[in-house]
Every structure is written in C-alpha cells, then in structure tokens.
Amino acid sequence: MFPLKDDVPSQTTPVVTVGLIGLNVLVFLYQFSLQLAPEPDALRSAQAFVFEFGVIPCRLTGQCAGPADFPNPVATIFTSMFVHGGLFHVFGNMLYLWIFGDNVEDTLGHGRFLFFYLACGVVAVLAQTLVNSSSGIPMIGASGAVSGVLGAYLILFPHAGVLTVVVFGFFIRVVRIPAVLVLGFWIVVQVVNGLVTYSVGMLEGKAEGGVAWFAHVGGFAAGIVLLFLLRRRQALRL
User: How many distinct structural domains can be found in the chain?
Assistant: First the structure.
C-alpha cells in the first residue's frame, strides 16, 4: 500500500512539518552534490558524509571509536535524522511526514510537535542500538521520527480516510482506506520484518540488516506514548 493523502484538513499552517521537509530536502541535495565530484572522490565524499553524520551504534555504546574530527556520537543521533540513502528513501519519508505530520502538529502545537518529532527520532535510534549495539553500520534517515508521527496519527485519527495506491500483482487501484488499516498494516510489517531479520541474523552470528526495523517500531511506540504526555487536554480525539 502506498498512501497519497488523507482527508483530515489542517487547522493551522504546519510550519514545523514544512520546515522539517525543507531541511531534509536541502541536506539531500547537498549529499547529491557530493556525488557530482570526479571519481573516485565522489564516492569517497558521499560515504564519508554518511559515516560522519549517521549514527553508528558501536560508537554510541563505546564499543568502537571514530576519528577525532567526527561529531560527538550523541550529536549524530540528531544529524542522522536528516541524512538519507537515496532519492526514494528521502521521498518516502517526506511523503509520510507531509500526509500525516500536519494533523499531529495541529494537535500538539508547533513547539511541542518539534520536540515530539526529535524525541521520537531519539527513541528510534536507541531502540535499534539496543538490538545492534556492536554494529558499525551507520543508521540514517527520518524514518524513526516519522514513525512516531504515524503512531500519534493512528491514535488521533483512526477512522480518517487515506487515499492509497494498492498494488497486488498486476492489480493497481487507488482506494480510500481507514487510517487504522493503513497504519496498522504498516506497523505489523515493521514488527514482522524486524523479528525475521533479527532471528536470521542470530542464526548467522549477526543481527544486522539493511533496514533499521526496530527503529521504526521504537519510534512508533514513542509517538503513542509522547502524544499522551504532550497533548493539550482537550485535543485528543478518539
């Protein structure tokens, strides 16, 4: 399923949501510009950027060390939220943020929403680090923070309609599906994939994969909890 838009109108201008999308896009364009340098400098520069500003679990837990000129490992928890691995990576995250972020921002208010977004991203990183504490592979992307937005949206607007592209083999259709089904299906996929990846990794003597599934799960759970902690008293809609 590929969501396109929801049917819950914004009550205020989602300045934080738009600002976060803009910042992510600007960072991605800078990343892309690094790849325009002559080879092999382009590949080296692009990889160095990811290793410098992505969060590396073993550095965060002190199980490995990075060069002295790297940012502090704690700082990379935040910088990693704005670094992406490719066009589809950043597009997918920003699409989800654009569809669901404005309504959560409406509910929490601009300042609280910014704190909420960053806090969900932090919990997401910690959740994945807990599973892969010795990993030397950088974690990048806004997925953990955006997952928190999805968790909050699911609680706030479970019956909202989400215009969704459904693909099943050669069958492609655009249908309106309740948010509880779209986001419920999404989190189930994250949990199942996370457990499968972890189980296979344990059998092979490692717990690493190409997608930080537990970051998604951790961010989603954080979004639900933080919604109840940060929401304005009259704002929660069930």
Answer: 1
Number of H helices, E strands in the chain: 9, 3
49-72: pLDDT as tens digits: 999 999 999 998 888 877 666 788
Q: What is the rounded CA–CA span in Å between residue 98 and residue 92?
A: 10
Residue 138 DSSP label: P
**Cα–Cα distance for residue pair 157/236, rounded to 1 Å:** 9
> CA distances (Å), 27 to each of 30, 50, 149, in order?
5, 11, 21
Strands (E), the chain: 2-6, 161-168, 171-178
pLDDT single digits (tens) 125-169: 999 999 888 888 999 999 999 999 999 999 999 999 999 998 877
Confidence at residue 160, expressed as pLDDT on a 0 to 100 scale: 96
Considering the entire predicted model, what is its pTM? 0.90
- Interatomic CA distance for residues 39 and 29, integer angstroms: 18
Query: Is there a domain that residue 237 lies in?
Result: no
Query: Would residue 40 count as lying in a domain?
Result: yes
CATH label of the domain that carries residue 103: 1.20.1540.10
Does residue 184 belong to any structural domain of this protein?
Answer: yes
Measuring CA to CA, how many Å separate 129 from each of 67, 81, 111, 117? 20, 15, 27, 19
> Which residues of 136-202 form beta strands (DSSP E)?
161-168, 171-178
